[in-house]
Specification:
Number of domains of chain B: 1
CATH superfamily of the largest domain in chain A: Cytochrome-c3 Hydrogenase, chain B
CATH class of the largest domain in chain A: Mainly Alpha
Largest sheet of chain A: 4 strands, antiparallel
Number of strands of chain A: 9
Distance between the termini of chain B: 48 Å
Strand content of chain B: under 5%
Helix content of chain B: 55-70%
Strand content of chain A: 5-15%
Number of domains of chain A: 2
Oligomer: heterodimer
Number of helices of chain B: 13
Radius of gyration of chain B: 20 Å
Structural class of chain B: mainly alpha
Order of helices and strands of chain A: HEEEHHHHHEEHHHHHHEEEHHEHH
Largest sheet of chain B: none
Order of helices and strands of chain B: HHHHHHHHHHHHH
Helix content of chain A: 40-55%
Largest interface: A-B, 29 and 26 residues
Shape of chain B: globular
Amino acid sequence: MGTLTTRFSTIQDPDEKHRFLLNMGPQHPCTHGVLRIVLEMDGEYAMGIDPILGYGHRMHEKMAECRPWSGFYPNTGRIDYGGAIPYNHGYCALIERMAGIEVPERAEYIRVITVELNRISSHFLGVGAYVIDLGAFTPILYMFDDREDILDALEDITGSRLTYCHHRVGGVSKDIDDVFIRRTRALIKTIRSRFDMYDRLVTGNIIFQKRTKDVGIIPVEMARRYGATGPVLRGSGIGFDIRKNEPYSVYPEFDFDIPTGENGDAFDRYMVRMLELEQSLRIIEQALDKLPDGPVMAKVKRIKLQPGDCSFSVEAARGMLTYYLVGDGTNVPYKLKIRVPSYSNLSLLEELCKGSLIADLVSAMGSLDLIIPEIDR
Amino acid sequence: MDFIVDIIAKYSLVRMLISFLLIIAIVMLNAIVMGYLERKICGRIQRRWGPMEVGFHGWMQMFLDGVKLLAKQLIVPREANPFLFRMAPLLCFTPVAMAFAVIPFSESFYAMDLNIGLIYLLAMGSLNVFSILIAGWSSNNKYSLFGALRSVAQNVAYEIPILLSLLAVVLVTTSFNFKEIVDYQSGLLSFWMCQPVAFIIFLIAGCAETNRLPFDLPEAESELTAGYFTEYGGFSFGLFAIAEYGNLFIMSSVATIMFLGGWNGPFGLDFYSGPILGVFWFLLKVFILMLIMIWVRWTYPRVRFDQLMNLSWKYLIPFSLINLLITAFIVKII
């Protein structure tokens, strides 16, 4: 951090004397939050890139060490406000794995439904914001129209719209009803009918394709080296998805595909997200069809975290999310480590965009779909 | 009444004063109308209402925004050059107002009848780039400077196809005078039919010349925050906005005069035209063109800078040159 500034002050090479430093952020439209990127510019070309974090740091991991595990639970939704339910799900599943709690099947189905709904709304947010980065303001408002339906449906059962606390250790806090099922089926239909419009408005747009194709190409080897996951990795052609590779919850019972890209450019990452919408819709449909009856909450006694460690990975909207918890026999975690996808995805940026135009930097960075509070935790 | 008409006819100074006041009024009114239309139409395009609070369907919103801008303090950044910083918005606004002087709204409704009206108007239009350069340079902000540099390159690149496409029309009419050009199109003929390539090239280049999406690289809010007017607030920002809409009006009216037959009624129907109805037809055509530009703006993403340059130097300029060559041959033969 800050190495670029130091390097810049010691430039001796006359060919590099005319370069200048440009602060992108912490208040800049394309950084989607309080990320600051120091750029060493040669005209319009960014020759050095140095992301500086810490403007939104809230010490989530330390907070987890200071209170009972249940007290930390609401924080998990605040880490990634774009797709909060997978974060809830991962934390609950972690505690369940540690305490050996069986979750009723109906609860698992409800969890999958809410997680996938949240994944769709998160992808709408990510893709819409990306298209704004490229200069088109209109698509995000159509996407938010669909997202609004999803948030309304989720609000009905979870009580909140952005940061949820619906999943509980041992099940879910509230059962879904017929109204929710009818509503979800209706919104699946509307979202499907909109795909064609998005194809014409965004995907098929010649300027959009020119701005994203062959921009920010991530080779497979590079994605592996930085530990990129989620659509960023899948865009490079590797079909790695925790839901398939380390199945959890009831995902093995559903039939869905993992869309992958070919070239690993920004367009592929965008396409992976758009295709994942359809797969998530498929999962929700199957889950609604198969939804079993029964309780939604297991009998849970007071949980003391056993001495020892435990980890749990889920597929969040932006990639692999891992919780790693060390217990010491009390109900306060000794250590909680959260491995968030955006952090690894951001670390790609320097190698990805070195020497590219500032417009390509914006395009490539938007396609990583970063949520800054998640990186800053 | 006759007395007033007499004075106006006799003393060109009176005519100039009146037209000056009218021009300022038209420029301001145009900004208000266009600002309102743009917000309403982009609202419709984006499935929302646009301004609704002030007055019926928010029609007074732009007036209130103007008052708000007027009431704001004009802040000059600490390291900026205060003189140039304050000059830039005025320099942006003045040529726009001056260019309005030669636009004929109908056969008798114009301020000045120059025999080189087209050249004068294009000269005024290209002064715009100076103000952008001064604004970008004097505000001592790297983003502003980026916007200014982009703007210069863009304006240089896109003025050429504009001139070349207009020259094809001038070759046919053999006149730079707007009235003669419009008179030439009084029958069924208007130039968008026999010069479609020039018309399309002019529209694309006009979009770029007025710095509007998909070619708004000098502003490019997701890359350069707000480009050359990042540091401007209050009414100096307002002047930039007014000048932007003024430029839009000028570009559309040039397209109307040169390609769509100016104040002539459609389909060569003579009984539809006249000094008053002419204004109606003229404004109708201008506003349709401006609405198309609004429509494009709220649909397309922004192009990258090298793509913008490629479009001009690799496609627009060669095509307009070929078009000019073909026109010249045909004119010579006929």
